[in-house]
Specification:
By secondary structure, the chain is an alpha/beta fold. It is built from 11 helices and 11 strands. The protein is 31% helix and 21% strand. Helix 2 links the parallel strand 2 and strand 3.
């Protein structure tokens, strides 16, 4: 029987957050990313011996060694994101996913297809182009004989950041049914949107669907305050006043309620452009639910988040630091970030939360591969 380490190829690798999440039981055979800055962060943390920088469309099977247990693809999300143009699978960025799938098919023709595939993306994948993109993705998997299912997982179960994502997990391993449950089984990861997307699949595609069974993880023991750097500099009073002046009456009421409570509350704020009465206005939107909003890159549809503290009736604010962002992605403090804030946020804001990857590996991917190895022994 084959034993760990399990092996993986990491596509659209960014700063290597999937690799960080998979952990020491996994060995990376190959990694690829188009962005030189993200590739530099990957090298700084994991070395560059397995990393190939460049467009996925320029890769061939000769670039990939052996046969991996897993191909992980956190494909570019801008075309699926609610904050983006939503051009769908035909969009210039998300079409990179088709470049990845071209490689998987070519490996399959050589008898070297990965044993499992994970495609991670924003939840907009479920509804992009009226659901047709999700149907197309599932159709591609079904056409090549894969069985597959999906989970919608919010990173807030693991870290204090709201970051819902869809994970499509595909396999050809014969014992996959042992990790599945009936369609009607209640699960925190079978959201209404996911059920609707699955229900809209054509019957031949739906016949390949697996309802993965995963229980909820233990309660998270870290809160937003525990992620903050104590020495980070706060803005002056004028800066905080400018931020609060951008709040709508609803959000300003949240601040006033927090101020009146005299308790210490930590929240976050985004500056966004909203249309009110037909006019575009900039607003600061706050939340005091113990979570940061979804982290983004500098070009990810909104500005960097602010930390807002209300204590003793006083309010102060500052920008969320890149190190705090890394912590909110589940990365350890010895993870090396680029020196500049903009470069660091390009890495931190554009990845998969590492603890989600670890949980999927531990609860689904590793048992699936281990059971298959036992059956083959």
């Amino acid at each position: 029987m084959r034993h760990p380490p399990f092996t993986a190829c990491e596509f659209f690798a960014g700063g290597g957050m999937a690799r960080a999440g998979l952990g020491p039981r996994w060995r990376t055979l190959f990694a690829n990313d188009f962005d030189p800055g993200k590739a530099a962060a990957y090298r700084a943390n994991f070395g560059g011996e397995t990393l190939r920088v460049g467009d996925v469309w320029n890769l061939t099977t000769a670039d990939l060694p052996g046969r991996a247990d897993l191909a992980w693809a956190s494909s570019p999300c801008q075309d699926f994101s609610l904050a983006g143009a939503r051009a769908g699978l035909q969009g210039g960025r998300s079409s990179a996913l088709l470049g990845f799938w071209r490689l998987v098919r070519a490996l399959d023709a050589e008898g070297r297809a990965p044993r499992t595939v994970v495609i991670e993306n924003v939840t907009g994948l479920l509804t992009s182009d009226g659901g047709r993109d999700f149907t197309a993705l599932c159709g591609m998997l079904a056409d090549e004989g894969w069985r597959f299912g999906a989970l919608e997982v919010d990173a807030s179960l693991f870290v204090p950041q709201s970051r819902p994502r869809v994970f499509v997990i595909a396999t050809r391993e014969p014992r996959a049914d042992a990790l599945c449950g009936p369609p009607e089984e209640a699960s925190p990861f079978r959201t209404r949107a996911l059920k609707q997307a699955q229900g809209a699949l054509p019957e031949p595609v739906k016949a390949r669907w697996l309802w993965w069974r995963l229980s909820a993880p233990p309660s998270r023991n870290a809160d937003l305050a525990s992620m903050l750097e104590p020495a980070a500099a706060w803005d002056d009073a004028e800066g905080t006043d400018r931020l609060l002046a951008l709040t709508s009456p609803l959000h300003r009421a949240r601040v006033e309620a927090a101020r009146t409570s005299r308790e210490r509350l930590i929240g976050t704020a985004y500056r966004r452009v909203r249309v009110e009465h037909g006019v575009r206005v900039q607003r600061a939107e706050l939340r005091f639910d113990g979570l940061a909003g979804c982290l983004r890159t500098p070009a990810g549809g909104s500005s960097r988040q602010f930390v807002v503290e209300v204590a003793g009736g006083e309010v102060r604010s500052r920008r969320l630091t890149a190190r705090e962002g890394a912590r909110l992605m589940g990365l350890p403090d010895d993870y090396l970030l680029p020196a500049g804030a903009t470069a660091a946020w390009r890495v931190v804001g554009d990845g998969v939360a590492a603890p989600v990857v670890r949980w999927l590996a531990e609860r689904l991917l590793e048992p699936l591969l281990t059971d298959a190895a036992r059956a083959a022994a």
